[in-house]
Structures are given as C-alpha cells and as structure tokens.
C-alpha cells in the first residue's frame, strides 16, 4: 500500500481527459498499469525499471487525481482510454505491464488491440471468473477490514501498514478516489468480466503471469486457469510476496521481467491484430 | 400533526451475543435466528400497529437486511397485511431504500396496489439506503445518490403516467414498456417523504417539494430544516409549512415519569445495537464523498465511521456519546436524551410538553415518527405506552398543525 504518491506525477490531457502521468527513464517503452492503489514514482522497482525502459505509468481515470468522465461506466471504457493514450503518446513495440486491477485492464486492452505491444506481463491480475457459481476465486476485498485486507495482500503485512495522518491532503484524496473508482468498475460482477476468459485466446503476444505465492486475493488455481487460457502464456511465481510482488520482492520481480523479455519472442505482426 | 408508530421489528433475542461478535448486521449467521420466536415477535408488532389504528395513530414500516436489529425485509409486504386490518391509519413505507433495491417498477406496482386496497392511505417514504444494506443487495455504492434520484424520477413517472407504455433508458435503469396496473388511488400520486440528515439532501428534497424527515437529528436538526427552506426560497416557491417537515424520535410514555423513562431505556436498545457493524460494511467506498473519506483517512480511521457511539447534541450544547453494546449502559440518562430531543419520555403531560417545545424550536413539523417500540420493550409495555400516547398525548399535540391533520 506504499504506492500512494502523486507528488511527482505530471498532469496531461489524453483524449480530452485530464489525468496524472508518471514518466521516467529511457529505452524501450514500458506502459505500466497500476492496481487499486496507484503509483509511487519513488518506488525502487520503478526506478530500476527506468534504468532500461521509458516507463509510462498513467493514473487511470478516476484514480488518484485523474478525472473520471461521467460516461465511463465499465472496464472497457478504461481499456479504450489506455489504447488511446498509447496512440497519443506514440508508444510502439512496447511492453505492457499490469498489476492486480491493472492486470485485468491490460488483458482487456490486448484482446481489443495488441498493435502497439510486443509483450504482456500480468502481475496477480484480477479479471476472470474461475470455478462454479458458489466458488469465490477473487477474494471479496470489500468484506475485509483494512487490517484483514493488508494481511491478505502482503506476505509481510507490516510492509503494508500505512500512517494516513502523515500523508498530504492530495494524497489522501487520491487514495479515497482510487478506492471509489476501484469499487465502481469492479463491484458487479465482482472484479471480473464474465466475457474476458473466452477472449483471452486473442492475446497472441508472449504473456507472462507473475504471481506472489502468498497472495490472499487470487490463488494458484485461479492463476493457473488464467495462464491456461493464453495461447502463449507462461507463469513465474515469486516466493515471500503477496498481491504486489513488485513491491515486496522488487529485485526478484526485476529479474523475472528481464528474463522473460530476453527469452520470449513476439510473433509476426500480422497475427497480433 | 400526524403521529406514526415505528418499530424496526428487532430480533433482540440475538443481542445477548452483541459483545462477542463484531457485527449484528451482514455477517451474523442466521443460525442465531429462531423462526418460532421471530413469528411471535412479528405477531406482537402487527397487533400493536392494529391498536394504533384504533388510537388515531398511523403506521410506518421500514426495512433492513441480514440483521438482528431488524427482521423486516420489505415495508410494502407488511403494509399490505395491515391495509386490510386497519381502517383509518396512514400507511407509510419508510424507508424504502430506493438506491439499493433495483426493481422500481415493481415498487410502483406494490405501492399502487396497497393504495387501492387501503382506499388511499399509502404514504411513500424514500431513503437512499443504509451503507450496511449495500452488501446484502449487492448494489454499487458508487453513484448511489445519482441512482437514488433517477430511480425516484422513474417511480414518480410510473405512478403518474396514464398515457400508456413509456420508455426509460437512463444510466441506471432500462425499461421499454412501463404501464403499471393498478394506478394509485391518490392522485396524482401518494404523498412522498424523503429522509435526510444533511443540508445537501435537505436541499435536494426541498427542490422537489417532498416532505423531509429527519431521524434523530436532535436539537441541531434546525440546520437541516433551514437548508430545506433556503432551497425552496431560491426556487421561488411558496414558503414551506409544517407539512413539509417530519421528525423521528424515541418515545416512552408511562403513568409516572419513572415508568416512562424505564420504557424509553428499553426502546433505546436501538442505540445499543444499531452501530454494531463490521468495519468493511460501515462505509463502502463511494457511499460517502471522496472528500469525506479523505477526511476520515486523515484521522487514521481507515474505512469505518464512528461505530462505537451514536452522537447527539443537547439544547445546552453538550455532546452526547451514546454507547453501544449489550452488556453495558448507554452512558446517558433518559433526561440527556430528552435534552437532545432524540427522545420524548415521561408522563403523557411531560411528553406533550417536550414535543410542543421541540415543535416550536424547529419551526413546526406536521409528521412525528415515534419509535414507540424498540429493544426488549414487551408487547404489554408497548401497548400501554401507545395507549397513553393515543389517549393523552395526541389530543394535546394534534392541533399543532391543523393543516396537515386535515390534508
């Protein structure tokens, strides 16, 4: 939960929507889509990614201090928006990384168009329904106290503890807005799109699922089902990490990413429409 | 003035475990609910409401879900039973949690049906919905206010449109052939009451000309009523009268002050239990504004609202923190609650005096909702309290608003 800062984000207009955007580093572009808690530009994992990549990390519409247009109603609106963002920023041959809610969003983008992306990395993604009608494979985060939620999301819950009183008013407003929009887009069906699982077959670029072995939000069965629906999917698990392995094990996360990018070859462009 | 008798229909028999569970709502397994005992309790409440009809009192029924504080899932269901067992009582369905229940057409049909059966005695009471009733309904807490008003508009249109099927395609509802049968007895539609405790809600209600009900707002409820009056003035409408306002408080009447206070203390079981809600269901994201939630975070209060106490302010400015939990006291006396105007209690004469005083303080209200049953107040005690109210308090206060009484 340390991804809170909005201080170093810049304000930009994308497709008529005012959003906050963090951009740092140089190299092959990497579009990073955050989870329910947003982005901390000072986070070590982000800094190390920026050593090799031009990292573009937008706050989704409605999250942090980014505007949420009144006619944004579903995750599809966010997906089309991020595709427009990639077009406006002229992102080409890029790596798309999404974590948690952002992983769901990244998958929703690529089933629509993979034209600007060579690789997809989904970190503990939400987004698909697994199991029967009485099974719950995505934990009901809205039925947990803050303490229970932190325990479910972190291998070491102490790392997730947060002193809200120490944050600025803008940061607190950003957190409150992020929680609201996370709820708005993910309330029903709960944190999934019933149609997504079928269309994961359209994700033909090499895709890596990263899963923190201590994640209490989505479990191994869910992640393995997700990987199984992907034409070119592989799984990397990270020990001693929860729902945010990039935060809890940044070094290991960086290694996994680098290894995947070195080994996985994207298919010919004609097959990625 | 019209007086409505209110009971949340609590299942107080489960309250003995209140101190050992974190929630009496949403998560408490219904294994704690004994159907045969519920049957007896609901039978008592229905009999009390029938008695109200004889006493010149009116009837209000609310709803909550998955809760030991209230086993009433639908006011229209209860009022349809009472419609045939009563002759003159107004039947107020309040509150119907409009933004949580996603079948507004069915609601319009049910209200019209009861209105016809009761020969025009239905009052419509609308509420946004309690935060802890969102999870059982699985309605999205975000945009709840927008959804409330859109649903309100659709409900009124369904009740009043006589031109054959109409279409409603809004952000929140999709209907193509709306044409309810029967239509309501009262034309153009039964009176509408909306509950509100904030100036923002009061303004929105005032702009639509509905009656605003403030529940347990206490001595400070004036600011809510003032916001209503301001919004009406800004719209250039005639100055609102008592008929535009309602107030809800706890009531205990006895032959002696001691007996009245004793009954109030039992009704106040409501305060002991209403706030016992597990943290995540107290304030789902979106129910309050982001600005409001940010202010809570600043106090390191995570996602919850103040759950331990029910706050109230007395006429001399004392802030009461009314405690919850079954095993300990309220931390306040009946006189404290009377001073805060969240309760009227004592002998019939004292109760009438208290209501008259508060009536003047608020600038008049045509509707008084009395929580005359709550907690472990017995059926016999409830009947005695209601009878004293009907026979000896009502004659003193019903003249306070002649307009509303003859409406």
Based on the model shown, name its key terms.
heterodimer, A: 273 residues, alpha/beta, Rossmann fold, 8 strands, disordered N terminus, B: 407 residues, two-stranded antiparallel ribbon, 15 helices, 40% helix
Task: Walk me through this protein's architecture.
The complex is a heterodimer of chains A (273) and B (407). Chain A is α/β, with parallel strands linked by helices and 273 residues long. Chain A has ten helices and eight strands. Helix content of chain A is 34%, strand content 18%. Chain A is globular. Chain B has a single domain (2-406), classed as Alpha-Beta Barrel (TIM Barrel), CATH 3.20.20. Chain A binds chain B through residues 73, 142-146, 163-165, 167, 169, 172-173, 175-177, 179-184, 187-188, and chain B through 27, 135, 138, 140-143, 171, 278-281, 284-286, 290-291, 293-295, 297-300, 302-303.
One letter per element, helices H and strands E, the order of chain A comes to EEEHEHEHEHHHHEHEHH
CATH class of chain A: Alpha Beta
CATH architecture of chain B: Alpha-Beta Barrel
Share of helical residues of chain A: 25-40%
Mean pLDDT of chain A: 94
| Gap between N and C termini of chain B | 10 Å
Give me the side-by-side strand order of the main sheet of chain B: 1-2-3-4-7-8-9-13
Count of alpha/pi helices of chain A? 10
Q: CATH fold name of chain B, please?
A: TIM Barrel
Flag low-confidence runs of chain A: 1-7
Q: Kindly, what is the distance between the CA atoms of the first and last residues of chain A, rounded to a whole number of angstroms?
A: 36 Å
- The class by helix and strand makeup of chain A works out as alpha/beta
| CATH H-tier superfamily of chain A | Alpha/Beta hydrolase fold, catalytic domain
Strand content of chain A: 15-25%
- Poorly predicted regions of chain B: none
Which structural class do the helices and strands of chain B define?
A: alpha/beta
N-to-C SSE string of chain B, H for helix and E for strand: EHEHEHEHHEEEHEHEHHHHEEHEHEHH
Query: Count of DSSP helices of chain B?
Result: 15
- C-alpha Rg of chain A (nearest Å): 17 Å
């Amino acid at each position: 939960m340390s991804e809170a800062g909005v201080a170093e984000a810049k304000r930009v207009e994308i497709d008529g929507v005012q959003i906050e955007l963090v951009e740092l580093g140089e190299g092959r572009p990497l579009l990073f889509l955050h989870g329910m808690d947003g982005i901390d530009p000072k986070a070590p994992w982000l800094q190390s990614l920026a050593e090799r990549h031009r990292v573009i990390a937008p706050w989704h519409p409605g999250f942090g201090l980014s505007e949420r247009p009144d006619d944004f109603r579903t995750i599809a609106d966010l997906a089309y928006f991020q595709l427009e963002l990639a077009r406006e920023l002229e992102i080409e041959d890029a790596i798309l990384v999404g974590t948690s809610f952002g992983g769901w969003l990244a998958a929703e983008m690529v089933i629509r168009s993979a034209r600007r992306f060579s690789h997809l990395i989904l970190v503990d993604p939400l987004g698909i329904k697994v199991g029967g009608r009485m099974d719950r494979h995505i934990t009901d985060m809205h039925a947990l106290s803050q303490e229970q939620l932190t325990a479910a999301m972190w291998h070491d819950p102490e790392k997730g503890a947060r002193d809200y009183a120490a944050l600025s008013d803008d940061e607190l407003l950003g957190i409150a807005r992020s929680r609201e929009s996370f709820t708005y887009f993910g309330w029903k069906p709960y944190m999934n799109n019933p149609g997504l699982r079928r269309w994961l077959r359209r994700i033909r670029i090499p895709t890596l699922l990263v899963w923190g072995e201590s994640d209490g939000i989505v479990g191994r069965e869910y992640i393995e089902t997700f990987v199984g629906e992907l034409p070119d999917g592989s799984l990397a698990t990270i020990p001693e990490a929860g729902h945010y392995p990039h935060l809890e094990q940044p070094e290991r996360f960086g290694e996994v990413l680098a290894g995947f990018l070195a080994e996985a070859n994207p298919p010919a462009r004609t097959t990625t429409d | 003035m019209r007086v409505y008798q209110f009971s949340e229909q609590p299942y107080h028999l489960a309250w003995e475990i209140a101190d050992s569970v974190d929630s009496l709502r949403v998560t408490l397994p219904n294994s704690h609910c004994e159907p045969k005992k519920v049957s007896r309790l609901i039978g008592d409440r229905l009999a009390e409401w029938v008695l109200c009809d004889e006493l010149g009192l009116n009837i209000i029924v609310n709803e909550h879900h998955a809760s030991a504080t209230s086993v009433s899932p639908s006011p229209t269901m209860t009022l349809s039973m009472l419609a045939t067992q009563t002759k003159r009582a107004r039947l107020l369905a309040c509150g119907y949690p409009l933004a949580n229940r996603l079948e507004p057409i069915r609601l319009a049909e049910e209200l019209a049906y009861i209105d016809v059966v009761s020969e025009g005695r239905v009052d419509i009471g609308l509420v946004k919905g309690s935060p802890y009733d969102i999870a059982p309904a699985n309605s999205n807490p975000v945009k709840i206010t927008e959804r409330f008003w859109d649903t309100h508009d659709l409900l009124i249109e369904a009740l009043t449109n006589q031109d054959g099927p109409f279409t409603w395609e809004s952000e929140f509802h999709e209907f193509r052939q709306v044409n309810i049968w029967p239509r309501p007895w009262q034309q153009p539609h039964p009176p509408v009451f909306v509950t509100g405790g904030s100036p923002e809600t009061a303004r929105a209600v005032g702009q639509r000309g509905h009656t605003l009900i403030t529940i347990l707002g206490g001595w400070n409820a004036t600011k809510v009523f003032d916001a209503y009056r301001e919004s009406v003035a800004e719209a250039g409408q005639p100055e609102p009268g008592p008929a535009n306002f309602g107030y809800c408080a706890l009531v205990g009447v006895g032959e002696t002050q001691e007996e009245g206070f004793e009954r109030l203390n039992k009704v106040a079981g409501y305060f002991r239990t209403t706030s016992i809600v597990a943290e995540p269901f107290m304030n789902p994201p979106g129910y309050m504004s982001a600005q409001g939630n940010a202010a809570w975070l600043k106090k390191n209060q995570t996602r919850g609202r103040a759950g331990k106490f029910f706050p109230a302010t007395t006429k001399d400015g004392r802030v009461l923190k009314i405690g919850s939990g079954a095993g300990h006291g309220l931390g306040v006396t009946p006189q404290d609650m009377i001073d805060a105007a969240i309760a009227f209690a004592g002998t019939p004469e004292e109760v009438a005096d208290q209501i008259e005083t508060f009536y003047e303080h608020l600038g008049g209200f045509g509707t008084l909702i009395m929580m005359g049953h709550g907690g472990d107040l017995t059926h016999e005690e409830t009947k005695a309290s209601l009878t004293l109210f009907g026979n000896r308090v009502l004659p003193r206060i019903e003249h306070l608003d002649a307009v509303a009484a003859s409406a």
